[in-house]
Every structure is written in structure tokens, then in C-alpha cells.
Amino acid sequence: MTTIWHNPRCSKSRQTLALLEENGVQAKIRVYLKERPTEAELRETLAKLGVTAAQIVRTGEKTFKDLELKNADDDTLIAAMVSNPILIERPIVIKGDKAVVGRPPENVLSLL
User: Fold this and answer.
1) pTM (2 decimals)?
2) What values do phi and psi take at 70, rounded to 5?
């Protein structure tokens, strides 16, 4: 099963979903801003991505600045992303024990 953490308002997220569909992938769409990941899900996804929280946090978001997260550790960033999923880089595509960030959208081809 392939899952995409999707934001329909994001062009890269829409492009990534279209690329999956063009390649015959019937992905489960999770609108993560509404269906927020839990801390455990986020930690599991970070492990599948092979990255730290700092590598997928959206530092340009107003919320990032408002929460003064610039020098935050991973635990603090994870808590902030769970509470404010807008801080999570998007889209994230998960398949089995692997995941990729769809920036650029072609990154997802490595999962197919």
C-alpha cells in the first residue's frame, strides 16, 4: 500500500499525486492537515525517510517563526509538527518501509 501525505492546496503535492496516478499507483490519500499524524507516526515516517525532524520542518512557515523553533532539538520539532502539521514538508509518500519527500515530485519514482 502506498500512502501520500497530501495537501491539495500545494502544487508540488498535486504534481506528486498526478505522477503516482500516471504510473498506475492507487495511493491512499491522507490530507495530513486534517488527519494529523501522531507523534509515533511521525517518528516512524522520519525513520522511513532516513532523516531528522529538522530536515523536513518547513522553516519558512510563519508558525515556525512564531514558535521560535530555529534552534530547537528534534523532540521539540516533532511535537511542534504534530500540533501544527503545516510545519511538515509535503508531500510525503510512504510505501512499506520506505518513504520519500516529493520535492521534486520525481523523487517518488524511486519507490515504484
Assistant:
1) 0.95
2) -50, -45
Sequence-ordered list of residues with C-beta below 8 angstroms from that of 110, at least 6 positions apart, any chain: 100
C-alpha cell recorded at residue 60: 519558512
What cell does 23 get?
504510473
pLDDT in tens, 35-66: 999 999 999 999 999 999 999 999 999 999 99
Helix-helix angle 39-49:74-83, to 10 degrees: 120
Binned at pLDDT 50, 70 and 90, residue 106 comes out as: very high
* Domains of the chain, CATH where assigned: 2-111 (3.40.30.10)
13: which 3 cell numbers?
Answer: 503535492
Among candidate residues 2, 3, 10, 44, the one labeled active-site is 10
Residue 101, C-alpha cell as written in the block: 519527500
10 is an active site residue: yes
pLDDT in tens, 10-27: 999 999 999 999 999 999
